[in-house]
Amino acid sequence: MVRAGLRGRGIKDERVLAAMERVPRERFIPESFRAAAYADRPLPIGLEQTISQPLMVAAMLEALELRGEERVLEVGAGSGYLAALLGELAREVIAVEIIPELAARARQTLAELGVTNVRVELGDGGVGYPSAAPYDAIVVSAGAPDVPFELLAELGPAGRLVIPVGREPQELVRMRRRGATFSRESLGSCSFVPLTGARGWE
Predict the structure, then answer these.
(1) Helices (H), the chain
(2) Where on the phi/psi map is residue 128: left (φ > 0), alpha (ψ -120 to 50), or beta?
(3) Cα separation of 65 and 61, whole Å?
(4) Active-site residue among 52, 79, 186, 191?
(5) Where would a tag sit more exposed on the chain, N or C end, judged by fewer CB atoms within 10 A?
(6) By percentage, how much of the chain surpasses pLDDT 70?
(7) How many Cα atoms within 13 Å fall on the side-chain side of residue 103?
């Protein structure tokens, strides 16, 4: 997947590529779909949720510009796959999941893989996780109507937020904080399950 797929389709960050080589994607999906674990497409994980396409996961990780010492917030832990990758790339990861069954399953898989720097919390991550803020980077794994102001407020002084925004086709957006100001950059189109909770879709 990494050599033939991701490098050939524009992913250049060697730390991201190495992390995706190390983390076994098949451990995060139901057994019935494991034969397709390394196909470049999203796969169902139950409860109307999916594990994202590997290329999109890699693009989001690259956009976060992680160097290894960051504290990262993930909104929408889902299967725990992106959280595991973030754990390879950052110092500390808090992954928030609103669906109890998925949060429990992600915790179990991460524990089985020996991941010790990722914490999965049950809650509405669309409004952030203020008790551990500020964050050097935040990534949202579900499509939001707009960028939640709570997440912007929880970014550190030079923080980055990567989030899918809008209706289909969604726009992948990167927000950068520079002190009290924010810049917005479009990273292209994408397709994610809808964000639920207070900052999600009705």
Answers:
(1) 14-22, 54-64, 81-89, 100-112, 149-153
(2) left
(3) 7
(4) 52
(5) C
(6) 98
(7) 17
Report the pLDDT value the prediction gives residue 4, as an integer from 0 to 100: 64
191 is catalytic: no
- Using an 8 Å Cβ cutoff, are 26 and 37 in contact? yes
pTM: 0.96
Q: Say which DSSP state 58 is in.
A: H
pLDDT single digits (tens) 81-92: 999 999 999 999
Bridge partners, residue 46, by sequence: 49
Amino acid at 15: R
* Sequence-distant (≥ 6) Cβ neighbours of residue 62 within 8 angstroms: 11, 12, 13, 16
- Summarised one tens digit per residue, pLDDT across range 140-160 is 999 999 999 999 999 999 999
Asked if 38 contacts 55 with a C-beta cutoff of 8 angstroms, the reply is no
CA distances from 166 to 6, 91, 197 (A): 26, 31, 15
